[in-house]
Structure formats: structure tokens, C-alpha cells
What does this fold into?
Amino acid sequence: MYDNQNNDYRTDNGDGSYRYVYRRSDEPAYPQELKPVKKKAVLPWGKLIALMLVCALVGGLVGAGVIGIVSGGGGRAELAVSDRTVQEVELVKVDGKTKMSMEEVYAANVNSVVAINVSGVSTNVFGYATETASAGSGFIVTEDGYIVTNYHVIKNARDVQVTLYSGETYKAEIIGGEEDYDLAVLKINAAGLKAVTLGDSDALNVGAEVAAIGNPLGELTFSMSRGVVSCVNRAINVDGTPFNMIQIDASINPGNSGGPLVNGYGEVIGIVSAKYTQYASTTVEGLGFAIPMNDVIAMVQDIMENGYVTNKAYMGLTPYTVTAEQAEMYSGIMCEGVYVKSVEEGGAAAKAGIREGDIIIKLGSDEIKSVADITAAKKNYRAGDTAEVVVYRSGEEVTLSITFDVQPEDTITEEPEQEVPQQQQPGNYYGNGNYGFGFTNPWDIFNYFYG
It folds into this structure.
């Protein structure tokens, strides 16, 4: 009921008492409090429409190129699609003067790149012959089908298949190779092929943009990766063989070996050859290497004409690497360098006066501490060249002069890497080329007592 005197509403409890519920003053009544309800703000229609337009404008700016403004009346969203016409990549002629885009570099060279699949036979750790299969890359250097690749791609090959960008596949003949330079030349029976243009690798600068085209993983054919030259004339050792390399940061993977490294003018300036994925116990990235074209171009021509490198310097001896630890183990019998195990009769070493038991410590201006060092030093010479060679003999250094022979055609590599076997100290050095008891080299001593 309403109480005029107290200006409020109240209810009868039935026992003469009342419960106050609500006062007209909007103040909560005692004992029950009624909390006021907050009203929602309502925007005028004009402000609401303006806000919607602002939101639509901001959304259009943020999502430009992705989705358009929602059409009125509940219509669907429209995608904003560019009307730019994509131009085909023009086939620019490689002339050594015209700078190209990477698209043009690829278009100018992809028809000269080949995928190489090799099957062969190798011997496993148990001495049994096993079937092998591998893949690599290569590039065409003449219109009649001569192809350059890495030696390690076709090593121990029994069958070599070459696939062109067009999809045509050919059986390839191995013309020849040079393992010390990781170089090989193949030939397919074809004509009118697109050959690459070879460039000057000596003109490369660090930071120059380059691209590698090849067959990564043996199945991602005709892929291109790009990067920059990280270093020129980088000396690295690959499986015991020293190389002068172009270092790049382009992605290189198994299967890229033998493919071309191309500069920004579309010229092939290197042969992709190796990648470091781990150094000691450290995982590395962005370390790819390519053989400079200038280092091997004459050899490519030589192999094409003769089947092998005809003017390769040859010493005619059998070497062993003597490490510092081994030299110390022999208590003065040896010093660190390359021990001459044998000398070919009538060969360059014999004519120079090099003897069995000598230790080569210098060739030309290069210090020699391993067979790999000799291999690297000989790359500075050709057959017929003359160089000084320093040997350790009878406790002193002896300087000799050697004129290199031509490497025989039937030898793929001269003087394979060998090491001095770990063994007990055989005796003391007696000087004058005599190791005691009439022995003229330390291996005779070991064989006499322990053989």
C-alpha cells in the first residue's frame, strides 16, 4: 500500500507489522536495499552511421589487397584483385655487358642445365660389391652435347643418364675426368643444344649476386637458388684434397654438385661443388662452394680433346704423410713432411735426385706437411715446368731442382693419400742415409724386426 505520510510503498505482513519496499525518493528502503540498474548508452543514429563509416575506412586501409568493404544490404565480401598484367620473361642474350634480373638469368641458362642420374658399383666394408645410385647436375658447354660436371658425381659410374630441361633423356658417355680438380666431362649424342656462356671468375668481387641452378636432392630438378659471393679464392679441403673455391651463401644441397654458378650477367663463372653442413661439432648454414671456371677451363678443353689432362705435373714417387706426432715418435728419424716411400726409375723425382727415405718439406714456395700439400702445390705447375724441392735427408735440408713429367694417361690420380702406419720406434738414426745394420730406410728396420 502507499503511505502518504512517509511517501513510500509498504506491504502488510499480516501481524500488524509492515515491510518497506520502495520509496518514491528512489532511495533504497530499509531493511531491503534495491540497487539501481545501469542503463545502456544509446548513440543517436547520426553518430552510429558516422562510426560505421570510419570503421569501414580503417578496415579497408589495413586489409588493402586482401579483402574489400562488405557491400550493403547483407551482400558478400569482395576480394580485391590486382589488374596488373604479368609480362613474360624475355630471353636476354648473354653478352657479358647486359646486367640481368634473376628471372632473366634463369631463363637464359635453364635450357643448358642437365640432371644427372648415376648407377654404379662400389665395395662395402665387408669387401662385397654393392649397387649404388646417385644424382647430380651438369651444364652443356657445346651445341653437340659436351657436358661439364664434378668428378665425384660420376665416380665409379657404370651407367650415366642425362635429362634435359625439355624432359628428353640421353645415355651419356664419360669422356674423362680429373679427380684432383673434381672435374669431369660427359658427352651425349645430340645436336643443336643450348650451351652456356663461360665468364671470367677472376672478375668476381665479394658481394656480387650469383645464382646456382641444379638438381637438389636428385628430384627437385632445375631449381635455382640465389645469394652473394662471400669470399673469393677460399682455400678449403674436401676429403683430403685441397681446392681453391668461390664461397657463396646460396642454398646448396646434395644433387646440386656439378651445376653452374652464374653471375648477374648470365655467365657461368663456377662449378657448384661442395657444401659445409657441419664443422667439427658445430652445425653451419650458408656455406656453399664452387670451383672457379678460370681454374679448369683449359682442363675442360684438354679432356674434350684427349680424354684426360695431358699437361698435368707428375713427380713419379709414392708419398706418405708424416705428422708431427709421428715425427716425434721416431726420435729424429723423421721430421714433419712427406716421406718418399718409392721413386719411379727414370721419372722426374729420380732425375731430380730425390731418394727413397727423403722427406719433402718444401715444393716451390709452398711448405709441405702432407700429401694434400703436395697435391695443392703441384696445381701451380704444368708438365715441363721446373721447381725447387727441399728434402730432409741425413739430418739436414737438401735443395734440389725437379722438372715435372706429364702424368701418364692410365693414371687418374698420382700418389694417392697415404699415411705412415702407427708402429713402434724402429731404431736410431745413424746419418749418411744409413739407418743402422745396413738398412737404408726405417721401414726396412720395422719389417726386419716385426715383419
Remarks:
- Residues 94-309 form a domain with the Thrombin, subunit H fold (CATH 2.40.10.120).
- The two ends are 129 Å apart (CA to CA).
- DSSP finds eight helices and 26 strands in the chain.
- The chain has two domains: 94-309, 313-450.
